[in-house]
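Record 1 of the preview.
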Amino acid sequence: MPGGLAADVRLPALFTDHMMLQRDRPARVWGWADAGESVTVRIQGQTATATAGADGQWSLFLDPLPAGGPHQLSVEGKNKLTIADVLVGDIWIASGQSNMQWALRSSNDAEKEIAGSSHPRIRLFQVPMKTAPTAVDDVETQWKVCGPDSTPGFSAVGYFFARHLEKETKIPQGVIQT
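->
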């Protein structure tokens, strides 16, 4: 690093408070740190360690976790990050044009639907629509708990899908709108 400054361990936007991990599958966790820095990740009694490469990138896999939560995820290198209110469940991608972009605020009975959208076991992650001339390794957004503050601009299809699945399966649901 220029001037001998050390970089803190950092994570992409997918790793924020209220995040989701996919149940019953190995979960990849990744980020950036100083080259050669050891990074340790902990959740639910599991510990996994990785070493940042020459480019500062690191990656590791956690063993599969069952549906549930909330849990706390900690990431530690030269600094420590704590991610609170992590749920483990099913994660879905809502992607496409028109039908997936149709916001809940534009749906039938929108006021009623938004007012009744408090579902703490549903998490929403909305990727901003942004043009980039080259591939990017992160976005500026965060996971949000499903509720009247987070649902108006979210995909109506994604919201109704997650609401139905959570009600039927009793498993936490996450939707990534992109």
